[in-house]
């Protein structure tokens, strides 16, 4: 079984969108908004390629999540793209800190190349 580009960086959207969701800023408050603390998410590694694996093997990948912003990063959900993948993740990453997202893919029901994302 050839597993090309397992667990792609769709993970970024699942983590970032809830952190960036906010109401529109009223006119004239741009300077205030610029000085407010905000989280900034960074994924140093977005793709894991496991090559050829034996059918039925469970593949585990850990992705580092960095918060390079000035406010805590709150991760509310990570959504795998298929039922073969489960994810566990750190809920809060402090400013300047690191967290992780761990994904596990069960290859029992697959033959041939597969690609799974978060």
How is the CATH topology named? Immunoglobulin-like
Helix content: 10-25%
Counted beta strands: 8
The N- to C-terminal Cα distance equals: 20 Å
Largest sheet: 4 strands, antiparallel
The helix/strand series, from N terminus to C terminus, equals EHHEEEEEEE
As a percent range, the share of strand residues is 25-35%
* CATH architectural grouping: Sandwich
Can you tell me the residue ranges where pLDDT is under 50 for at least 5 consecutive residues? 1-17, 19-23
Return the average pLDDT rounded to an integer: 79
Q: Helix- and strand-based class?
A: alpha+beta
Global geometry: elongated
Please, how many helices?
2
**Any idea what the radius of gyration is?**
17 Å
Kindly report the spatial arrangement of strands forming the biggest sheet.
Answer: 2-4-8-6
What's the CATH first level?
Mainly Beta
Total count of domains? 1
Describe the structure.
The protein has one domain: Immunoglobulin-like, CATH 2.60.40. The protein has helices at residues 10-20, 30-35, and strands at 2-3, 41-42, 51-52, 58-67, 73-74, 85-89, 92-93, 98-106. The strands form three sheets. Strands 2-4-8-6 form a four-stranded antiparallel β-sheet, covered by helices on one side. It is elongated. The relative contact order is 0.31. The chain has 118 residues and is of the alpha+beta class. This is DUF1573 domain-containing protein. It comes from Thermoanaerobaculum aquaticum. Pfam families: DUF1573 (PF07610). Residues 1-21 form the signal peptide.
């Amino acid at each position: 079984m050839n597993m090309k580009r397992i667990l792609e960086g769709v993970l970024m959207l699942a983590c970032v969108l809830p952190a960036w969701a906010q109401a529109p800023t009223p006119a004239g408050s741009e300077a205030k908004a610029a000085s407010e603390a905000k989280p900034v998410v960074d994924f140093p590694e977005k793709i894991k390629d496991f090559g050829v694996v034996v059918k039925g093997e469970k593949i585990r990948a850990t992705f580092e999540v960095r918060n390079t912003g000035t406010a805590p990063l709150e991760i509310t959900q990570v959504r795998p793209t298929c039922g073969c993948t489960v994810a566990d993740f750190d809920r809060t990453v402090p400013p300047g800190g690191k967290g992780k997202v761990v994904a596990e893919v069960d290859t029992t029901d697959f033959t041939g190349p597969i690609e799974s994302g978060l």
